[in-house]
Amino acid sequence: xxxxxxxxxxxxxxxxxxxxxxxxxxxxxxxxxxxxxxxxxxxxxxxxxxxxxxxxxxxxxxxxxxxxxxxxxxxxxxxxxxxxxxxxxxxxxxxxxxxxxxxxxxxxxxxxxxxxxxxxxxxxxxxxxxxxxx
Length: 134
What we know:
Layout: E1 9-14, H1 17-28, E2 31-32, E3 52-56, E4 63-68, E5 88-92, H2 95-104, E6 108-109, E7 118-122, E8 128-133
Parallel strand pairs: 1-4, 5-8
Antiparallel strand pairs: 2-3, 3-4, 6-7, 7-8
Pfam families: Glyoxalase_6
Domain VOC: 6-134
Protein name: VOC family protein
């Protein structure tokens, strides 16, 4: 089958794109585009506060972006009232070691853990994501 398009990125809604980009940069080791020298707010080329920040994936592959939304409400997982809509998985060789590092940068371990080979966490603004034993 011939491709119609090439996957470029996934964007997460959030209240502060710069802060969430720093969190996921710490998770992945990827660089942040337009990181300010002394923290938020990021500004675009016209000096306006940026409502979009993204990570620079090594080798130019697919990446993660962060989009500011007004009145952000965190997803609640599991559940349907404020559904997660999507989540990200990260492969790791050691769940315990990766968990310790994640908790140190602001992730929270979700109280509901439905599996043995993966663990569910919440990022600083409540998006669920998983560490998966590789």
